[in-house]
Design a protein that fits this description.
The chain has 291 residues and is an alpha+beta fold. The chain is 30% helix and 33% strand. The protein has a seven-stranded antiparallel β-sheet. The longest helix has 23 residues.
């Protein structure tokens, strides 16, 4: 069961959701999430959400999910795309079998989200208009975190004050770096650095990047849109969210910094701190408890 809201994440012109702490036999986490419209745009095309079952047995069997999307398309279309993607992910996670392995499950959920975005586009888009969205999702269970993403929204693992980027931006410039057509320095200034090479809604099929990581007590997982990391360095994110800082306060501070330095884009983030984990081993893809 939740211990209940510990504090309220202050709204900075966007949508604030409460900071919560949840303790289970398998994992003890606390989190905060915040989405802000920024200083320039009239609407917020970012969308975020989470699933944490209330029953202890359910969360041990299924774990919890956090998801964040950054819509593309302008006007209301980006908002529709991001909402459709995240809600599809959350709904699929709620009804998934406890026996599903996270890597396969997240791949399926992201592909289903892609279909949902396409269907939503057919329902609302005007002739000649198109919409798409990024997605980044993190599922937590036992002592594992599985991360899936399409697009350039990011997930960081912050451990002992050091940030580690768990995702790879799916942008044209970054693909050119991977192919050694551009250096990292050239890509940072390239006109294609914000042009997505993959997104949900842009095609009937989508290539999903999924990876899994072991997590430890004290780790902080940060999911964010480019409105945050485009203005705030990863080292700053790590410093602000480390050392037991209040997550709601940290989320607000990060949004404030992004707005002060730029604010031309929507800014969204989710912060999850791991307080304790249940150590498990894996045998033939199935977990077993370690002493």
């Amino acid at each position: 069961m939740y211990r209940g809201p510990q504090a309220a994440a202050a709204s900075v012109g966007g949508v604030a959701r409460p900071y919560r702490s949840a303790q289970y036999s398998s994992m003890d986490v606390e989190f905060a999430e915040l989405s802000d419209v920024g200083r320039v745009r009239q609407g917020n095309e970012d969308y975020l959400g989470h699933v944490i079952p209330l029953a202890t047995d359910d969360v041990r069997a299924r774990g919890c999910l956090f998801a964040l999307a950054d819509g593309v398309g302008g006007h209301d279309l980006g908002e529709v795309a991001s909402h459709a993607a995240v809600e599809s992910m959350l709904a699929g996670f709620r009804t998934a079998s406890p026996d599903d392995l996270y890597t396969a499950l997240l791949t399926r959920l992201v592909r289903d989200a892609n279909t949902s975005v396409i269907d939503a586009g057919h329902a609302v888009a005007t002739r000649g208009a198109s919409m798409a969205t990024t997605i980044v999702a993190c599922a937590l269970r036992y002592d594992r975190a599985a991360v899936a993403h399409v697009g350039d929204s990011r997930c960081y693992l912050i451990r002992r004050g050091q940030p580690n980027l768990l995702t790879r931006d799916h942008t044209v410039a970054n693909e050119h770096v991977r192919l050694k057509l551009l250096s990292k320095e050239e890509a940072a200034d390239a006109e294609t650095r914000h042009m997505l090479s993959r997104s949900l809604g842009s095609g009937l099929s989508v290539n999903v990047d999924v990876n899994e990581h072991q997590v430890f007590a004290g780790d902080v997982i940060l999911l964010c849109s480019d409105g945050l990391y485009g203005s705030v360095e990863a080292s700053e994110m790590a410093a602000i969210t480390s050392h037991g800082s209040d997550l709601a306060t940290a989320a607000k501070r990060l949004v404030d910094i992004a707005n002060q330095r730029d604010g031309s884009d929507n800014i969204s983030l989710q912060l999850i701190r791991v307080r304790s984990v249940e150590r498990v081993g894996m045998y033939r893809g199935r977990p077993y408890r370690l002493p």
